[in-house]
Each structure stands twice: as C-alpha cells, then as structure tokens.
Amino acid sequence: MPAATNTLETVRSVTEGGYRWGFETAIEQELIPKGLDEAVIRLISAKKEEPAWLLEWRLKAFRAWQSMEEPRWAAVRYPPIDYQNLHYYAAPKQKTRPKSLDEVDPELLRTYEKLGIPLREQEQLAGVAVDAVFDSVSVATTFKEKLAEAGVIFCSFSEAVREHPDLVRRWLGTVVPPSDNYFAALNSAVFSDGSFVFVPKGVRCPMELSTYFRINARNTGQFERTLIVAEEGSYVSYLEGCTAPQRDENQLHAAVVELVALDEATIKYSTVQNWYPGDAKGRGGIYNFVTKRGACRGAKSKISWTQVETGSAITWKYPSCILQGEGSVGEFYSVAITNNRQQADTGTKMIHIGPRTRSTIVSKGISAGEGQNTYRGLVRILPKAQHARNFTQCDSLLIGDRCGAHTVPYIESRNPTARVEHEATTSRIAEDQLFYCRQRGMTEEEAVGLIVNGFAREVLKELPMEFAVEAQKLLAISLEGSVG
Amino acid sequence: MLKIEGLKVSVEGKEVLRGIDLEVPAGEVHAIMGPNGSGKSTLGYVLAGREGYEVTAGSVTFRGRDLLAMEPEERAAAGLFLAFQYPVELPGVGNANFLRQALNAVRRARGEAELDAVQFLKLVRGKVKALGMTEEMLKRAVNVGYSGGEKKRNEILQMAILEPAFCILDETDSGLDIDALKIVAEGVNALRSSDRGMLVITHYQRLLDYIVPDRVHVLLAGRIVQSGGPELARALEAKGYGELQAAA
Lengths: 484, 248
Description:
The complex is a heterodimer of chains A (484) and B (248).
Chain A: H1 2-13, E1 29-31, H2 38-47, H3 52-66, E2 90-92, H4 106-114, E3 128-134, E4 137-141, H5 144-149, E5 153-156, H6 157-163, H7 165-171, H8 182-190, E6 195-199, E7 208-214, E8 225-230, E9 235-243, E10 250-253, E11 256-261, E12 266-273, E13 285-296, E14 302-309, E15 314-317, E16 320-323, E17 329-338, E18 343-352, E19 358-367, E20 372-381, E21 389-398, E22 404-413, E23 419-428, H9 431-439, H10 444-455, H11 457-460, H12 465-478
Parallel strand pairs in A: 3-7, 6-8, 7-9, 8-11, 9-12, 10-13, 11-13, 12-14, 13-15, 13-16, 14-17, 15-18, 16-18, 17-19, 18-20, 19-21, 20-22, 21-23
Antiparallel strand pairs in A: 1-2, 3-4, 5-6
Helix pairs in contact in A: 2-3, 3-8, 6-7, 9-10, 10-12
Chain B: E1 2-11, E2 14-24, E3 29-33, H1 40-48, E4 54-62, E5 65-66, H2 72-77, E6 80-83, E7 90-94, H3 95-110, H4 117-130, H5 136-139, E8 141-142, H6 148-162, E9 166-170, H7 178-191, E10 197-202, H8 206-210, E11 215-220, E12 223-228, H9 230-239, H10 242-247
Parallel strand pairs in B: 3-10, 3-11, 6-9, 9-10
Antiparallel strand pairs in B: 1-2, 1-4, 4-5, 7-8, 11-12
C-alpha cells in the first residue's frame, strides 16, 4: 500500500528533532581527578564534611561494589564503561556555602531560568518547592521556611547529613541496601548529593516538592541519592526533573531513591526524565542506571510511582514497591519513549508481603526510529499475602518499522488466594487516524503528538497538574522528526 | 468554488473514477447519488487528499487554487471539510481537546488568533446543545464507544465549529434513525449560506428530503451519468438505479 509506505516515511523523519535543553553552562568547576579508589571516596566524604559513620558506610559499599559484576540481563547494549575514566565529583566553585539565593552564582540561576525553573520564590509556580541539584551538589532549595512551619524537612542530602544526622542514619539504606545491586553499590560509595524529605506524623505536606537535576560537567558521573520518609498518616507529593547538555560522549547517571511510608502514609513520586538522549545516529546521551524502591512499611500505606521517560540513551530502572503493611497499596504508572537509537529496559517490581496488599501497574511504551523499548516487571506474591491483588496493563505503540517493543512479565504467586491479572497490547498509529487529524487541519507531527498523548493519557493524568502540561509537550517534542 | 475537470482516479491499479466533471458554486448544495461501488466515497477521499488514491488525469480547482497539489492539512486550512462515513477512533484523545486543536490549527492557517480553553468552551457549548449532544461527550475520547448516531453528530459538530467554506458529507445519513437524521440535517442546514458550498454524498434519497439540494448528480461506475434538480432524487427513489445501470 502506498499509504502505509508514506506514513513510514513521515514517521522516519520525526526522529531528527532537536533537544532543547542541550546547552552548557560556562562556570568555574571544582573537579576531582578521574578515577575511583578508597582515596577518592575519602575525598568526597571530606569535602562534604561527613561524620565518620557515613564514610565507613561508603567504604563498605565500595568494597562490596568491587566484588560485584555489572548486570547484563537487561535488553540493552552498550560498550563497556571504564569506571576509572570518570570524575566522581564536580561542583560549581563557590567559596562558602550560599546562605540565600543572593549568594548563588547568577550564572547558575540563569541556567535554571533557561530550563524553565526559576529559583526565586516569587517567580515560581505557587505551591511548588524546588531543590536544584547541579552536577554533584545542591545549589538551592526554595520555600524551606514555609515547609518548616508545617514540620516538613526538605533540603539537600548534604544538608540533611549535617542538620538531621539521626534521621539520615536511621533510614539511609534501609530500603535499598548498599550492596543491593552493582549500580546501587556504586552510588552508595560515591553519591554526592540529592534531596531529603521528612514528613512528620499526621502532616499533609502543604506544597508539591520537586528536585531538578542537571548534569553539566563533562566526563562526570552523577550519583544522587534521594530519601523520603513519610511518618504515620502523612502525605507528600514529590517530582523530579532531569536534563543534561548535548555531548558526543556518553555520561553515567546512577541514582538511588528510597521511600519509606509508615501506617496510612502516602507518597506520590513523579519523574519527568529528559536526560540528553543522544543524537539520531546514537552518539552521546546519558546512561540512566537507577535504583528506585519504596517500602510500604505501615498498614494501609501507599506508594505511587509515575514516570515519564523521554530522555537518556539507555534507561535501566524499575521503581518498585515492597508491600509489607497490611492493606498497603503500590502503583506504577509509566510512559517510556524510545526514539532514534534510544534503548529502555524499564518496569517495576511489586513485592506483596502483607495480607490484602494491592498493586496496579500501567505501562505505556512508545517506540519510534530504531528505539528499543522493553517492559520488564515482576509481581511476587509471598505466602502470607492473603487476598493480594495485582492488575498489570502493558501497552506498546510502534511508530515506523525499525523499532521494537518487548514485554517481559514475571509473575510468581505463592498464595492461592491472590489474584493477578496481566493485559498487554501492541499497536501502531494507523494511517486513517493520521488522515483524520490532518483532514481537520493538523500537521502530521501535531497528529502524532495528539495520538501519542492519547495513548499515554492514563499515565499522564497521574502527574501533578502543574507538570502534566509540560509532560504532554515533552512527549510531542520527543517524537519530533519521527514523522515528516 | 469547487471545479472538477476530467478527473480520473485509480486505486491499486484499478480505475475507480473514470472522468468526472463537476462544478459547485458558492451558496449551492449538490448531491452525489449512486449505488455501492460507484466511486462516491473515493471522490470524497480524493478531494480531501487521502493517500492511496492515484490521480491519473484531470484537475481540481478549489477557490482558485490547485487542490490536488495541496497536503490534506492545507486543504483543511483552505476551508475544505470532509464529514467521514466512518469517523475514526482516537483512544485517549479527549473530544474537546481534539476539537480545540483542530480549530486552532485552522485559525492559525487563516491568520486568526488561537482560542484558549475558556473561549473555546464558550463556543462549543452552544453548538453541542443545538445538535442534541451532551457536554459529557466532549470529555470522552474521540469517537471511542460512540453509537453510530453519536459519531455522525460529532462530525457535524466539528463542521459547525470549524466553519469550513466547503463541506463534503460522505453518507452522513447511514446508520441514523429518523430523529437523529433530522437533527443532523438541521445542523447541516444551519450552515447553508451564500458563501459556502456543499457536496452531499448519499446512497438514498431520504437525506435529501431534509437537506434539499440545488443539484443532483448520479454517479455510476465512476462517471456522472445524469444531473438534474431535486426531483431527480425522487425519481431515482421510485425507480432505483437499475434502469440507469442498464443504460450505462
């Protein structure tokens, strides 16, 4: 059919779209020499003026990492990473720790403005507090005082180590142990900053919290660590965004996120991941190797992950829920786009331990260009999880004939009262859908953007309203050039 | 407004339209009648620019421009609208969102300001009511789970909002009961004006009782074999296409 061929041609050309966040900030950097050994870890720890226990914790993780092997089971391909050829710490040069935004390098403020994240509170979206992490350090956190009035702690990880050492020590590594996996161990050894959130008993966090991660420095790994603890009956919604300059070489990003929800607490964690994806030929881009896990420790607690993954050359991440408390709830809503040569192996793990635990998984994979998109998900029901329930829905949308979509569900049930459902579909954007939209005046690109957003709607509606519109635009932009 | 001359069209090597000449001036409603397989829908699709139809001869001029050289969205921007016989489903795409995006695309092309959500809702509410639709339908995904009648009404709603210069209605009456047919016809009649042309494609005369055409053309095996006034439609209803088919 000539019609089908034409659609494919159109789709092929969408892939040449530009990455709009690819600029570099010219700023004086403090960079420690390349390479990784115990001395480097001691240096990072010293720079951050950390207590001895944390240094020990890092060193233990490093020793574990040295004995581990890089995982090879994911459906992604990349050349071996030379871990000695990376910088493990990069920070904008600053004489003292800035006490207010007035002391922050204006170049940094401009960078965030350019990214659409003004850090001056009066210029911000009302109701969103931001922690801005630039390479290895947090440069600013807004609305801290207002949050403190409600009893909520929201600060950079480094500050949390200084100001709230007992809380950090109590919860750090309790969800993702330092030797959990290769990348988590590496992160535990060298993590430099990230965000810390603590919501005390009975408090509903009065605003959205968000962290904006920016990789700027060349040949530098970014290893941030986020820890969120929600005490009994509390609620918090948190969003992270990520971008990086456009570079020809690959860059490693290995983060760890730990969430703890006690009795009847709810944590809503949203991600809009837009790291540089590499160019149309597959040069450059971020390796996004991330461990995210939430523990529903308390009865009727709830953890909900929502992710919109449009960036990165390679994505390897499985935000998971350990459903321990009776009647606790885990959710995973995901949209992952792979365009050009991007590869994504992403999904979730729902571990049902407690009785009457429930989980929902909705995964929407969109592949264009030569992108490869794999959903990999585990639903495990343990013997004591009486009447546990899971519902999984995996939908794949293919644009063009050179991409791939793969669904790899693992289901293990050791309790006969449990109910597990899995639905999967694969579809293409139909020629008649495109024609219908074009007959109504839309360009082919607008039509693809609209149809893809429709496909992803169930997930997008889970995002906090402030970010949903941005995410919709991002989906359309990520597919620019995949039709022509 | 629309001038078709010597138009021949093939689909997968087979000639479906075998030389069509037709002119629809502004302000007139023309009906194309014909049995199944006569090329009626092909004519609609070719005018709207659907891929897969090969024009082998002839020309189409629309408001002074070479229609066949334009992309489908350019034709829409120039004011050509096709109400589909089988409206297409767009899962997850909200009807209101779709309508607004379409309207703003057309407005941009015309050099008019885009409407924001509030202005748009104001505009759409009145039209929804006039077509016997509910606002709830605006929230549903485009054509997903709609009944046949709802789909057709939704096409007319789009037409009412986009206010195109020229409307092609492809078997808009199929699948409608008599009440729905009346509502749809009222919607169409409300759009009749001295600066708008319409081409109503239908198998049956029934629709033409409610949308009374200025001219009726009979399409048989890819050719217009007879043209006349509204009385031609009634004559056809009485006698059927058989006699004409035998003559052709």
